Task: structure prediction
Amino acid sequence: MTGDDLQELTRGALEEIAGASDPDQLELVRRKYMARHGGLITAGAAALATVDGDGRAELGRAFNLAKSTVQQALHTRQLELASGGRAADAEREWLDLSHPGAGLDRGHQHPVARLVREIEDIMARLGYESVRGPEIEDDLHNFQLLNMPPEHPARDTHDTFYLAGAEAAWLFRTHTSPVQMRTMLSGRPPFRIIVPGKVARRDNPDPTHIPVFHQVEGLCVDRGVTVGDLKGTLEYLLRALFGPERKVRLRASFFPYTEPSLEADVACGICQGSGCRSCLGKGWMEILGSGMVHPQVLRNGGVDPEQFSGFAFGMGPDRIAVLRYGLPDVRELYENDLRLLEQF
Ligand code: DAH
Result:
């Protein structure tokens, strides 16, 4: 081995050291040139023994220079790679202490619950108190006191869930109207109440029907209440709910517990009245039944129809939600799909 050989080796070592991109690679380079046994440069020590005199001293200097040069380069590169690693760590583990917190995920009200609240708020402005009644009812309050004696044909539209095994005829209320009776029977007029709650009917589910749904009942009984009051109240409520632009129509209808009876329809929110799958081609969605409380119903509630009159209405907030938000199918409200629910 000569001094030139050592220079050549040193150049090669420096190149490879510079090219090592991580500590493992660098270690391989170190072993290749500097391993105690078999390193390309350390082998120079053995070569020294074979040379004499001046040549030996010269080769010795070249050998020491090569060793220290390569060692220095290894050390420097090692530091570079290590600090590069730390920089990468720092990059990866970077923490922005000024970043605002993520906040807690909070639940919120279901769109139908929100709507019920809204209806309660609107009616509260007109002096209506919100009350509740039992979901499990008896035949007397759900039907008989509302002018639907046994065998009355109007019962057909109330496909009723009866409670099996019960001694008396208990049922899941088919509407919130029985709470009218409970209110009248337990107090004295005037009454101004709003009654939100769940009701159930044995309907087959379709885009506009679900077997358990919601109603909000309203009842106003006082001296001198007229159809004009009923219309004015409904108009106020529907405008507040749907905005003044939405088309609303009132039609004559029939309920055994009101005379006269009216139904309110709102233009379908999906097709704006031209008829689609959601409104079953009608262009309108029926959202509310109402009328002047039948004198016999007042009497059944212990109210004297000679002194008092009143109006009542019942509506379906599920349908109102469908109309308001343009949902294609009422069942979507109860599928617990967060993609839908999180929009409200
Ligand atoms: N109970 C009716 C229904 O379930 C809605 C209704 C109609 C309620 C007329 C009323 C009313 O209070 O006066 O379809």
Notes: The first helix runs from residue 3 to 19.
